[in-house]
Amino acid sequence: MINYVHDNPRRLWLKLQRPDYFTCHHEEMIAGTVASTIGNRFLLNFPLKVQVQCTRKLTKEQIEEKWNEILDLAEQGYVIVTPGISAGEKTIMNRAIDYGLPIIILTTKKYSNKEKPTGKLFDACANGKLLLVSPQLKNEQHELTGAQCWELNDLARAIVINQAAV
Fold it and tell me: What is the mean pLDDT of residues 129-150?
């Protein structure tokens, strides 16, 4: 808690320097889906994007192989797009954030106008490397359902295919 309080001036300064990255934009149409966003919306318009979708059955070695493929693409200028649902997707998503790679994360978390991402997501957002997309899902529930997972992965695929998403 002490570190959080000591970090308040830095976070405030970053929010003041990059207000658009920390403003929640509601009712945006993204690849045919209504969503809220927070972060660098220009990531949607990058010409090169790659979806990270991993089955739950992947081994640690297969996840490592997938990570190396994604890292190679990111170094070529690709933006990573993922809902980060499965263990493999979460691993790749967290590594991408740690490496400072540009990433679009689809999430079911609803941000209010006063809420901001926290921790390493805050820093990625401040650096323009993150866009959080929270679509209005059919049958929204507190616990993520299989149907919602499919919806999130379908939207990720549509964002990758739709080169001018906004």
Answer: 83
